[in-house]
Structures are given as C-alpha cells and as structure tokens.
Amino acid sequence: MFTGCKQSSQTSNNSALSSDVASKVYVAPGEYDEFYAFVSGGFSGQLSVYGLPSGRLLKVIPVFSQDAEKGYGYNEETIPMLNTSFGFIPWDDAHHPELSQTDGETDGRWVFINGNNTPRIARIDLSTFETAEIIEIPNSGGNHSSPFTTENTEYVVAGTRFAVPYPQKDMSIKEYKGNFKGALTFIDVEKESGHMEVAFQVLMPGFNYDLAHSGKGKSHGWTFFTTYNTEESNTLLEVGASQNDKDYIAAINWKKAEEYIAEGKFKTIPANYAHNIYDEKTHVATSEMKKEVRVLDPAECPGLVYFLPTPKSPHGVDVDPTGEYIVGNGKLSADLTVHSFTKVLQAIENKSFDGEAYGIPILKMDEIVAGIVEQPGLGPLHTEFDGKGNAYTTFFISSEVVKWKVGTWEVIDRIPSYYSVGHLMIPGGDSKKPEGKYLVALNKITKDRYLPTGPELNHSAQLYDISGDKMELLLDFPTIGEPHYAQGISAGKVMSKSKKFYPIDENEHPHATKSESDVKVVREGNIVRIYMTAIRSHLNPDNIEGVKVGDKVYFHLTNLEQDWDVPHGFSVMGAQNAELLVMPGQTETLYWEPKQEGVYPFYCTDFCSALHQEMQGYVRVSPANSDVPVKWAMGDD
Amino acid sequence: MFTGCKQSSQTSNNSALSSDVASKVYVAPGEYDEFYAFVSGGFSGQLSVYGLPSGRLLKVIPVFSQDAEKGYGYNEETIPMLNTSFGFIPWDDAHHPELSQTDGETDGRWVFINGNNTPRIARIDLSTFETAEIIEIPNSGGNHSSPFTTENTEYVVAGTRFAVPYPQKDMSIKEYKGNFKGALTFIDVEKESGHMEVAFQVLMPGFNYDLAHSGKGKSHGWTFFTTYNTEESNTLLEVGASQNDKDYIAAINWKKAEEYIAEGKFKTIPANYAHNIYDEKTHVATSEMKKEVRVLDPAECPGLVYFLPTPKSPHGVDVDPTGEYIVGNGKLSADLTVHSFTKVLQAIENKSFDGEAYGIPILKMDEIVAGIVEQPGLGPLHTEFDGKGNAYTTFFISSEVVKWKVGTWEVIDRIPSYYSVGHLMIPGGDSKKPEGKYLVALNKITKDRYLPTGPELNHSAQLYDISGDKMELLLDFPTIGEPHYAQGISAGKVMSKSKKFYPIDENEHPHATKSESDVKVVREGNIVRIYMTAIRSHLNPDNIEGVKVGDKVYFHLTNLEQDWDVPHGFSVMGAQNAELLVMPGQTETLYWEPKQEGVYPFYCTDFCSALHQEMQGYVRVSPANSDVPVKWAMGDD
C-alpha cells in the first residue's frame, strides 16, 4: 500500500546489486533496445510499441480508436477505418496482439489484434507501423478469443465471447439457454499481401469463448478455444458461470473444416460486416460492407469439433513449442491441467467419448491428460514457454509467475508480481521458437507502484530476466491503457523492413499536390478544395480568400519532404476536426465547415525547422452571400 | 543517421561508467521517482506526467483532445469541456504547462496549459490529476505566449501568436498591416479555488507574440512577451518576418493595468468565448458562453507597455530567479541579449525613448542591456536557471545546451542534444527557487535515436545531470506527442495531496446510484435512463429489456468501489460513443442510440477481479413499434 514513506531511488545509496540490475535494463542514449514489444492498450483500443529491456514507449499505433495525436479517425483518409455495421465507432477495446508467423516462428511482417467490443480484427503493417486493415466479425458478441494465428498465418481466428442470437434478432434474454449461439470465425490471410477475408464460421453452443491458440508442429491444423459459462447462465455470471467442475476446451480441426467447405457442406447466411483497407499508395482508407458468411454446423460435420473437459472455467489455452501439450489455465482451479495432443488424437480414433453436447463429442478427461501441475498457485490465467523446456504461468489471485517443467510438471521457481498479473509475454513465447531471455508480466492493478497521479493510475508491466535458473525482477514500467496482452520479437527481424518516408512520386492520392507549382484552390458549388503543400518552412498557399460561411472546405495537404522524420502538421483555428499530421510524401485531408466570418490563421503544428513559427497563413471567411472571389497566394505581398 | 550497425545495449559489455550512469536513472521496482515532470503533448493536445530520473510515463492527462483511453470528450460528463465559441472541438495543440506558484516558488496545486490552435487555457488540479477548467481566449489567434504565471499565480497570461481582425470580421488579408491586431490577455486566478476569469486584454499592434514570462522579485508586477514579424508581413513569413535586425520584447506593467481598470479606463467590447468547468462533486462539466471583454489600449494608457528592442526574432523570454535579468533568445541572432530590469526602469524614468510604435514607447537597447553572451551557439530558443547562478540555453540549429554564468555572461559548458532541442526544463527552472539537479532537453527531431517505427516516430526528450560543473547526458526517453515544454517539481510537493478515490457519499451527480437497491431503468418518452452500478464482479442490472430502436439511451454508471485503483469500465457492443472508465465513487454516462434490433452484450472493460470476465450483461433492443415493457434484473434467472 501507499505509505508515503517510500523514497525515490538515490544513486549514492544503490547497492552493487541494484547497480547490476540497473545495467541490465539501461539502454544508453543512442543505443537500441534488443526487442520490440507490441503491447495492447486494452480499453484504449490501440497498440503500443515498447523497447525491451528499457521499457521505453516507442510509439502508440492507433487501431480501433480515434487518436488526436495522429489525426487517425479524424482526417478524411482514416475515418473509414473505424466504420462498422453499426456506423462509425470511435473506440474499441483491443486485447491480443499476435505477430504473423512463418513455420511457427514470428516473421516480423504484421501484427494482428482483436477489437473486443464491436467484434473486429486489425492488421498492422510492420514496414510502416500503421493499421493497414480492419475486418468486422459478423454475428458475434465480444471478440475475445482472437486473433491467435496458425503457424503459417493461414488464418487468424475470432471466437465470440458472448453468445448472441444467431443471426441477431429481437428475443427475450431469458430464452438464452439453447437459443443464443457462439460463432468461431476463421479469417483467411493472403500469403503475400496479408489481405484478410472471412473464410467460414463454426456455429457453436451458447457458451462463452474466452481465449484460443492454434496448434503447431504435430497439432498444426487445429485451433483450441477455451469456454466458460457452459452452464449457459444469462445473469450474475460471477455465480452462475462458476457452477460446473469442468468446462471445455473446444478443439477445432480447421483442415477438416476446409474439406467440408470444399465439399460445399456449409450454409450461407446473411451477415452484415465492414471490411476496411488503408491503401499505402493512395494514402486513403476505403470501407466495404459484406453481406453474407459461410457457416459450418458441427452436428452436421463429424470430426470438426471435439470438447476437451478441463477444470474449471479455463481462461488461457496455451500450446507448447512442440505442439504436443495443450495447457488449460482453469482460473478457478487449484491445479493446472495439461492435455496431450497425441492422446486427444488417440481418443478420437477410439471414439472414446463421454457423451456429447449439442452434437459435439466430449472426450474423456482422464484419457487425454498428459499431466497436472499440482497446486502451483491461485487463479492460473496464462502460460508461455521459453524454448528450453520450461513453462511460465501467471496466477492472478496469488499474484505471481510460476515456472514449471514441461513433461515432469514440477514447479521449479516462483516470483511475485505487483499486482494481479493477467497475461504474460516472452518474445516468441507462444510460437515454435521462443526467444526466452525476458518475460513481461502484464499487471491489472497498480496502486502504489509509482508516484501517485490521483484516482486514475496508469497500468503497469514488469520485466523479468529468465535467462538463468531463477527469475529475476528487473523493472516496473507503466503502460498506456491496460497492457492486456503483448508479443515480442528480436529487433533485427523488424527494423530492417521499416520504411522512413513515402516516395512522393508514388503518391496516388486523388488530391495530391506533388509540386508547389500545382497548388490551387478550386470551388465547385459550395465545395472548396484547397490543394496545399508543406515544405520547410512554408505552407503554400498561405493567403486564401473566397471561402464562405456554409462552405464545405477540404484542405488536401501534401508533405513534399523526402527525408526521414520531417512530418508537417496542420491546423486551422476553430476547425471542428482534429489537425493533420502528414508524413513525408503523404497527403492528408482536413474537412472544415466554417461557421463564422473572419480571418483565421493556420499553421504547421509539428516543430520542423528554425523557422517553424513562421510556417503560417490565413484563410478569409466571408459571409455566405459574399462575392469575394476564390484567390490564393504565397509570397505575393 | 540510421545505419543499421547500432546494437542494443548489452549488459555484459557495459563499461563501469555506463553502469554508473545506469544507476543514476534506474528507479528500482517499488521505488519512487524523485520528480514529477509535466510535459505537454504539443499536437496531441494533452499533458503527460513523467517520473524523473526514470523517464517513465505515469499518466496522460486529457486536456484539449478527446481521449478514447479515458472516455474524456466522449462521455456526457466531459463533452462540455471541449466546447468553444466554434462549437465542440475534439482537438487542440497544447504547448506550455506552467505550475502554479506561491511567492515565486512552485506549490504543486495546479498546472496550467495553453491550447494554441483554438485559443484556450486549461487548469489541471494536482489533487486529482484531472482537467478542472478550460477558458477560451476571445479575439485571439494561436494562443502561444501562454500561460506563464505571475509569482503568486495572480494571473496566467495569453498572448495571441497571430494577429487577427479585432474583433474578428471579414476583411482582405492584404489589409493586414496596421489593421490586424494582437491581444495580450490576463486571466485572473482565484487564490483558493483556482477559478479563472478573463481580467482584461491589452490591445497591441499586429505583430506575432511568441512567448512570455512574468517578472519575479524586483520585476514582480510585469510580464514580458516576445514579438516577431514586427515587419507585419502576411505571407511567406520565413522571409517576410526575418527582415528586421531587432524585434521587441513587450513589457507589460500589469499592476499599472489594474490601476487603469480600477479607474474605468477600459473599453468593453463584444466577445464570444466559452468557459468550461468540471465539478468534482457532481462529476459533471458545464460550459458557459461569455459575451464581452475589457480592453486597454496602450496608446491611451501611458506607462502600461514598453518595447525592449532585442535581436533577432526573439523566441523565448526568460527571467532569472532574482527577477533582474530578462533573457531574449533571438532565434536568428548569433548572440544572446540579456536586459537589466533595473536599467529598464531607469530608462523609463528618464523617458529615454527611441521613438514609438503604434503609440508604445521604444526603449534604447544600449541603455537597457545588462550583458551579451557572445556567440554561444546557433539558434537560441530558451533559457532556464539552476538557482546557483547559472543559466542554460538551448540552441536549435547547433543542437546543444549551453551553460553560462549569469552576471559574467561567460560560457562555461556545452553539451550536444539529439536532435534540434526546443524548450528545456529544469524543475522550478523558471521560478525563484529552481531545483537544479536535472535538466530535460525537449527535442524536435528523433530520427535514429530509437528502434525505427516506420515513417512516424515518437518525439524524444533527454535527461542531463546538472548537479556538477559539467553537464552529463543520462538518458534518452521517447514522449507522447511533441514534448513542447515541461515543468518539474519535487515529488513531495505533490504526492501528499493526491486523492485515491471519490467518496461515494459526496457524489452529487444528478444521476448517481449510490446503492444496488436503487438501480432502475426509467423511460420518459423515447429517453431511457439506465441507473446502473458496478462493484466486483457484476454490473447491476445485467439483463435489460424494453429498449427500442430509435430510443435515446443513457447508461448512468456509478462505481460503488471505495478503494484505490479499482476502476470499472463499461461498453455496449456497437455503441457509437467510446466506453466509460469510472473511478471509485464516480458516476459517468454513456449515450447510445440503438440502430438495430437484437440482444447486445455489455461488459466491464477494466480487468478488475478474478471474475472480471463474468462481469457482463445483455440489453435487448426491440423494434421501434414493439410493446416489450421496460424491465431490468440481475440474478433473477
């Protein structure tokens, strides 16, 4: 607790030990971090990029929420990225970043991340660190068990957390049991471009689907989803969904699904979902509404789905690097149950079932368990791996990370987390090739870990060194939003691909101005388009007249710079939309409806040069009935 | 430049020196930083709170921009905070945080910060770290020379950066010279509450007003504003505003202004500006429109304003801790000119003027100069002080910080910055009592300082140890937005005041629900108000029926927790507004217009307990013509 007696770190009093730890996380000025960490923002809806081991925040990538820092979701080019079947949604709750993989190894091409509230998956391009694509998930509610890629990024997945009427319709909530359904959606990822399409949905009982992981190696071709609320309660779930001793891990054979799809054994049902793509050449996002989806019903598709009974309200499901072991983190269980994929296949072959649920065979738990990690802690949530035969599981209630041996199931180390750890992240820790040097605990409660900042505190992450036998706590670092989950990757796998600017001669924006000689102001009816350029240290034109109250004005600003890290910003006094922040070679558009006559300044908002303060201009707004002609100038005083 | 040959910091290779530096910035897990740093976000419109020396981001305080992470500017309670005379503006450009002062010393009560684009000043309360008040600045354009408090926080100031028609009207931009004006606004700050009111404006010539600082000690009662573009150019200012060898520092005698106001020697002119206040008891912001402002004309108020000629396009104006020395940082000058306040008073007494400009006497530069720091670097921008007789000036073009001796004007140390430093910050460095242990350089260009993140890079700050004779670079840390300016303060001056939650029995929100027994759903016409509570681990009610397409639905959520750091979040699938994030004891409102029939889940978005995933519910949306009655339940399965 916050006692007020803590003192700030005093250099002179640091022990040699502390100094040694300090050196482990210190990245000297001008030096680079060893790993990129991609940390979701939870309720912020964004994805943050940190360097490890320093814990420094390198960038917040706007994904599912408007971002005034970058103009995302405000400028005309990116507004379509936030379109959904419900219209424009300025916010979502982003949970699980997942790096693309090739042969089960992180390849540094893309990060996928799920939107939880209004179900969506986004793809972030790691050559630009920008959101390239967002696809909505139809007929779902709360896309939590997502995106969790397959080992060659064949698919990312999306499992409904909340069962809903399928398809959506008006019905009494009391009719929940048996009538509400859960859709598990497989999104195809095009190999070269990363382009996403909904491949198919698997229609499941009205349980809650919590988390997922795809198989790898021997279990490649399967994806595993945890369930809770197999009781199908629709109220006070803290009681109602905690009755059953066991819930299920749903094992989906997606290679079998592909066969059924190929055989035409699907139904096509109406659906309404948005698919939004940002085109890096035009610098413009477009949004398309899709109208149907293919659905497989497990009761009609034998071999497609099996239930693996797992104690108790399993939260995370994690597959070890070999693909043999499937860890069910039963959050209300005292033990940790690990299933054997080999045994699962054997039980299926033997048709050794313990009945079925809604037509889906239930395997016998004692026939598929590989081992049990006994009483390792309270409230197990998630497990990752170090590639050296060890697993690391977080315990929310006992607030610790426990290291155990895969195969012998013995606990070999434990260390506290501050406080209430949820997910954990080891770079590559859910892939076939973990880079097991560091572990990051993603904590839910902060309280007294940092200087207080009133009732609202940043969430917190903790960095541990796991290179030795014993875990060692190195660093606390606060995060933007809730650090819900994260992925990490060696810097070298990403940095060489990172673009520095957009070539101006490749700019295909429909309203680009590629040379100062082409600047102009064009009126068509009450639409005024201002084709403007920015280059150190002027905006051209910088004197604009002939705009009238009631006009619809578009400032199309092209940044003519062709050097790294010379963005220009743009704002107009009183403009209802946020500013622009335009990268070199890019064009962005600020939409403005002037409401009052007057002469309004505009200026560059990103300090760009010694004469940045001089990078300004004026736009004159005349009354609606004025006959002031459209006119523009720069340097013509 | 980015060469690709840099390697991440390797612990084993760190020299003893590096290890020593590491220890100086390392704040071990559970330990506290020594200083709070309040760093503006520039184009992000927000204020970030960092710990020093760690450089850790403790919180982003939303001020002038919507923030999806916190629901600020989206929930009904905070939307009025972003109201202006132009309507709701979701964004601004926040430049200069300024701590409140008592007797010239930072007192840890409030931070003020200016909105640059749509001119405003905000006050942040440091007991809650929330924006408490925003006041718009009438008849101004680009509120850059702001807020820069007086020594007992009698006033914060707001100087127009861009001259505009005064008051605003439709006129040709070519009529700029002599017709556009600059207003310097003094905002009264109520001593106990911090409540702001526009006291008066001083009507100035149509120059650009760049920065300001108020006097202290012997110069208390005066405020100094830099000018550029005394040429009164209205186009291509990078050339047009760089012609004159000298521009002016405008010295305003605000005690004299108070006399003129008391004597009634002001004009009252029409004005239209918003004043927005967030009430901590009701948890609701209200916005009021003000209609007039009092104006003083220097030509009619002798002794109110003097011009101090200063080479060349002076950017920052900084007053030393004694109040005697006024540093003009002429950004296009080779030297740094320091004026003597004593000599200024003497020259005024002697009426030793070099003519006048628009009725304002111009002092003779050679009579007021205390000293010149000769050729210290290229592009001086800002100066702060360490309280030990030293000054530190940033040089944008030569990208360095130069330390010089106040009084002897000799350069005694210099150190590079990476890259292109703008402002600098020493905690208390613009007050009478600097805490001169650290210096933070606030840099404009990042390029290769961190792992690359595509064309867009975070800006960067650098921390220097200035406790010894020689400055020592300790740390690079990236920032949110542009770290335009910052203020720092010893943690002890703030942390003891920091609130941990809001007492539920003091909650005066008009739609608060203070007990679970009071939850309800009320329909009045097509307005549906849902009075809901959150406490671990349920939302009450969690089954809601009787909502129809076309309704206007208000979810009034009260967080019943009374413990530190137990916020609850709230979201509804498909809701057009962002989520809520409700602190313990607080009530917030999400507005929703359901467009489609169906049954939509809602849930807690801030992981709060082991059964957080169970903290969910459903709202049924029936067709507009449905007769499903309003109904709510929890636990009534």
Tell me the layout of helices and strands.
The structure is a homodimer of 637-residue chains.
Chain A: H1 16-25, E1 35-40, E2 47-52, E3 56-61, E4 83-84, E5 87-88, E6 98-102, E7 105-115, E8 120-125, E9 130-136, E10 143-145, E11 155-160, E12 164-165, H2 176-179, E13 180-189, E14 196-204, E15 208-214, E16 222-228, H3 237-240, E17 247-253, H4 254-262, E18 267-279, E19 284-296, E20 305-310, E21 314-319, E22 325-330, E23 336-340, H5 341-349, E24 353-357, E25 360-363, H6 365-368, E26 369-373, E27 380-385, E28 390-395, E29 400-405, E30 411-416, E31 421-425, E32 438-443, E33 459-465, E34 472-479, E35 486-490, H7 492-495, E36 520-524, E37 527-535, E38 538-540, E39 543-548, E40 552-559, E41 568-572, E42 580-582, E43 587-592, E44 598-603, E45 616-622, E46 631-633
Parallel strand pairs in A: 14-19, 37-40, 39-45
Antiparallel strand pairs in A: 1-2, 1-35, 2-3, 4-5, 6-7, 7-8, 8-9, 9-18, 10-11, 11-13, 12-13, 13-14, 15-16, 16-17, 17-20, 18-19, 21-22, 22-23, 23-26, 24-25, 27-28, 28-29, 29-30, 31-32, 32-33, 33-34, 36-37, 37-38, 39-46, 40-43, 41-42, 41-44, 44-45
Keywords (chains A, B): Copper, Metal-binding, Oxidoreductase
GO molecular function (chains A, B): nitrous-oxide reductase activity
Organism (chains A, B): Zhouia spongiae
